[in-house]
């Protein structure tokens, strides 16, 4: 379908007041960057963007957002390019959306609707599909204009039109609410299943490393580079949606779980943040968070701020984040040689920063070493049974590990529930005769 993209830019004073009111940061983004991102979102669902324009607005109209002159200009564009869809990169009220559709005789969707459409196409797992559909239905609740009568086929049975005197829109709204309730119940069951999976992982406690970042920052490419997985990775906004988890071994042999999450974006619809909260809990429980940034994007500073704001909304504050978040400056292969060298030098002297190219592999070894170093102090739970000939290790264990429980068995062995660091776990394996033997120089 041919589409025209419109990016409304509110008067600066009004935009600033709005930002202070709702905590938004995206208003400071350059208008050209917003336009390019909006086009990218449209291309992500295979739309043919025939025109894109930035529309300054000094006095937003409650009925249409845009002024009469701009509405007529866009109508002329639709006729010129034979386009049947207008994407407005700004939240629209149901009244504004309906009025603009009447004025242009074309389908109109706002930023929230566009992101929901993309998520609807990308979701592949049952949980992802349920989350997207639930978010979409909640978004549509206030936009019912005889557009949801198809739900009657899902509801089944007779009497779907409701009782005497019930209007069609009331019947649609009732069917919509019933569908929302059913989806919420299904999602609750899926969430319980996910919680059971988390509980099982805790019994075999491997540290969790979560990838987060702005959409198209290269998270999935980095995920594939590190784990060898075949996750879809394309130069496209929201190329992947459903979370993916893989086990991987760090350079020193420790096993960790790497989690690739959905990409963030400015002005992420609140419906989606709420619907995907269960998925994003993987980030909350992570021992280490890798914040992947696209250093080749001139807008990466604002994108980073958007990501940190969403992490704050999820409950990861600045103080906690400073300890758990490692910035990964990605796509340095796209930089000019001089800029590349400057970024690598800056990253080498900065705290909590590693410069990499997930595509070429540059810097990935340093990243793996840093992940290993960061997680070396994370305690691992283990249950150990000491044979009689190894009981001399008991004093060492009490000095170097946290002993939560001890059981003296009838055969003389001792079973301990302990918590210890990675380095202590390796040393214990060596002392018990299961680990690598010391090299000759270690004896000298």
TrEMBL record:
Keyword Chloroplast: no
Coiled coil ranges: 166-200
All copies of domain Hflx-type G, residue ranges: 207-379
Pfam (any one): MMR_HSR1
One Gene Ontology term, aspect cellular component: cytoplasm
Subcellular locations according to the entry: Cytoplasm
Binding site for GTP: 213-220, 238-242, 260-263, 330-333, 357-359
Keywords: Coiled coil, Cytoplasm, GTP-binding, Magnesium, Metal-binding, Nucleotide-binding
Chain sites annotated for binding Mg(2+): 220, 240
UniProt KW Membrane keyword: no
UniProt-recorded Gene Ontology molecular function terms: GTP binding; GTPase activity; metal ion binding; ribosome binding
CC cofactor: Mg(2+)
Subunit structure: Monomer. Associates with the 50S ribosomal subunit.
Recorded family membership: Belongs to the TRAFAC class OBG-HflX-like GTPase superfamily. HflX GTPase family.
Function of the molecule: GTPase that associates with the 50S ribosomal subunit and may have a role during protein synthesis or ribosome biogenesis.
Protein's name according to its UniProt entry: GTPase HflX
